[in-house]
Amino acid sequence: MPVVQTSTDDVFINCPFDDAFAPTFRALIFAILVCGFRTRSARELDDGGQTRIDKIFALIEQCRYGIHDLSRTELDAVNNLPRFNMPLELGLFLGAKRYGGQHQKVKRILILDVEQFRYQG
Questions:
Q1: Which residues contact 98 (CB under 8 A, 6 or more apart)?
Q2: Phi/psi at 64 (nearest 5 deg)?
């Protein structure tokens, strides 16, 4: 398996993609682009032959930076379950940083949440 180097220009955005979060998503994209980086997210890929988790794996492998928004992990009103995908993608990014090769160990992460240090509890 070839070694994939992380791009020093790529920023993986892990956040909700619903209408309520759209203004924040656009602001993140704007800030990243203005700072000279390239945004990456699961929304950029449209390959029916690739599963969503494989898309996420590939993006995480390719990106040196990650912005992970955990502010929307509240319980869903319909099934009373939290949104697990954002914490899962953060875990995958942390796992790549911890257990990946030398190109993965240089990853840097920004975690956004509604309450400071909530996830460190």
A1: 105
A2: -80, -35
Angle between helices 52-62 and 85-99 (to 10 degrees): 40
Q: Looking at the DSSP assignment, which residues form a beta bridge with residue 65?
A: 11, 108
Task: Record the tokens describing residue 44, joined without a space.
Answer: 């950029």
pLDDT of residue 13: 96
Residues of the chain with pLDDT under 70: 1-6, 45, 119-121
Question: pLDDT by residue (tens digit) across 56-67?
Answer: 999 999 999 999
